[in-house]
Amino acid sequence: MKKKFVSVLLAGVLSAASLGVFAACGGGSDGPITTGELKKDENGNVIFENVEIVCNTVVSGTDKDAFEQIVQQFNIEHRGEITVHSESIGDGTFETSVPQRISNNSNAPDLIMAHQKVLKSFENNDLLQPFDEVMELSGIEIDMEDYAEGLAQYSSLGEGDSLYAVPVDAQSMIVYYNKAKLEELGGKLPETRAELITLLQNAKDEYGSGFWPIAWATGNDYFARYVFPTAVLQNGGELFDTESLYAEWAEGENEDAFKDAIGSIRELIYDKNFAQYGRESVLEEYLSDNFLFYLTLPWSNNEHLSAYADEKGINVSEVSDYLGATSLSGWFAMDAVDPSANVVFGDSHFFAMSKTVQDINQKAAILEFIRYFTQNAEIGTQWARAGHVSASKIVSESQTYQSDSIVSHYFIHFYPDLDDFRCMGLTPAFKEVQTNLNALFVSAVGKSSITDGTISSEILRCQEEVNAIVDFIK
Amino acid sequence: MQVTAIDKKAQQKRAKRKEQLLAFVLISPYFIIFVLFTVIPFVMGFVFSFMQYNPYMPEQNEFIGLDNFIEVFDPSDPISQRFWGSFSTMLAFCAVNTPLAILVPLGLAYLLNMHPPGFKIFRAIIYLPCVISVTINGIIFGNMFAGSSSGLINAWFGTEIKWLSGLPWENDFLRWFVILLANVWTCGGNFVILAAALRDVPKSLNEACEMDGGNRWTRFLYVTLPSIKPAVSICLFNSLIANLNLYGGPYVLNEIDNESLLVTPMMFIQNFLMGGVAYARQTGYLCAAAIVFGAIVIILSSIERKAMDGRKKRTKYTEEYAVARGNSYMIAKEEKDDAKEA
After folding, report:
1. A277, A396: one domain
2. Which ipTM did the prediction report?
3. What span, in angstroms and rounded, lies between the C-alpha atoms of A397 and A147?
């Protein structure tokens, strides 16, 4: 009995003590600290001496090789000055492991390359620091005027005029078209939805069954992730209110935009029978030329071109005689003159600096690396060839970029105007927005027949799902 | 003479101390791991449940008393609604899978106890899936039943059935079927326990029952089942705990073919805790939810134990057996069984 009492007492004391310790943990977070001094030459350029920086990147898969190649090239060109150590952390664990590393300052990265959508949460939890101070001290300037407006708008992470994140690239669904078939149908790419419908109808009439005017795989997760939000935005919709962060999908004009988006996709699938629903791969149609437009993902561009070349028994360089590239601009806009009719929604990688970096030399080296990665035409071209269209105007307007065979034939056509490119934006609830857009897409587009009332209730249900989480994490 | 006795006592004491030290050394690896990965996280979680806690922003941490628990039990809170909603998933799974996790291995053990040809091979085959981890099990079944044509079952039959994905209210049956199949497939642990228990059933009892005109079913119901009750009880307890903590299987299946359509309480908590930095501010609430969930698991397990204890009644045959062997033998046996259960 006595022993039991002592155990209970001990547990109570332990819990109370722990409570006190943890409650007292609020020591107050210090803002970013800057230590050390910069050495400069007579021209005012920073002299780097064996500065090492660690970069955690979300890039994985085949793009990882391209990324590491660029890092290696940078290290060679900056031997004895700056060395970048990169570590790829998969999309699934990036959001948990990198914040923990930064927060504990254990194996913390100095630089992170993440998707735009996750950065607001990082900033909300004080895991990042702005570039402004180091830009001023080092004289290494990164001007957002040099980057596509559509992406540069997220660079402050909603913190006034500060520069927290530098856009690197853009990626969304890409569209190939069959050159021979298009030529037979008049040779003109559609600029509006009405022109698209007419062209697709002609293609359907001309080539009959077995031929799909649009070959797309709606079963692929990225379809709902990229194409459905594109349709919503092209119809003037908003994914969430930028002030309150709440989803307002079932309200007023926004509901109309969502309904138009759903209607525009349903029309192509069920009313006109131009495309299918539910397929996870349409590679068969692509390789057998049974398509007019074929949608896929930009990072598989090389594989697609190679597969097509193998199928036809030609060189990859000759594929451009058979396949052209175009974009989703205007495809879903019910109103062709809507200012957002040409918007394309997708993801974008951004560079940001961890709050753990204190040495001014490291901070300057980070800027130098970012400038190299995002403003060097050769590097931008290399990165674009791996499937990532450059966010930098310096790169995209360069001769090197524009004259590259792959970039000029394909990538510059996928999202022709990056000022019209949109990402998720600045919400910590991006996952819920994405998941519920996906759920809405499946529930509203997945069935061949559905009433307007059901669509409305689905929009409302998904909106409430998002807003519950917004309340939870706010 | 007296000195020798004291020496002997001291020697015994030293030997005992040495033995205790050895025991401590031997259990210390487990003990250290237990403290590091169970006790400390539990204490921390318990403490956090009374706090507004954000691991990334310690300056915002504060003691808020029972607020998190009040929120967990607030029926108007949509997140709490989801938390309690996830219990229906868990309970539905428990209701179906726990009996299956006993009946299927019991049936198999009963059949193999008749020693059909090749029974040793069958025994190995039935146990083998147990060696596989939950994750691998999920990956195997996830890929077998993947919705695309890359799924083995769909590839065999040339179909594109969405076994695991789709709307929660449309393809529930198929998804549950796959998860149940994956769980039943790994019933080898229970099978081994029940098979061993079946071997221990006294033949004389069966013979007595048979002489009284009892058929196979009667023998099973009145002799076999009461005799293996301790083993059934252990299996039931283990299966119930495992099913209440359902996480790995649905998690892997969700990852393979859809996102968070099957959410159990463990998944609800884990999805937010590991869901990224966006949910960091709600760590305290999630810890409170975990404490509540833990308490419910303890209550349900205790009810199960009590229910099993309450059924300790001798059947006609065990009673007669007791008379034949002497009551003291049966009492000793029951005590042994109780000790086994404990």
Report:
1. no
2. 0.80
3. 11
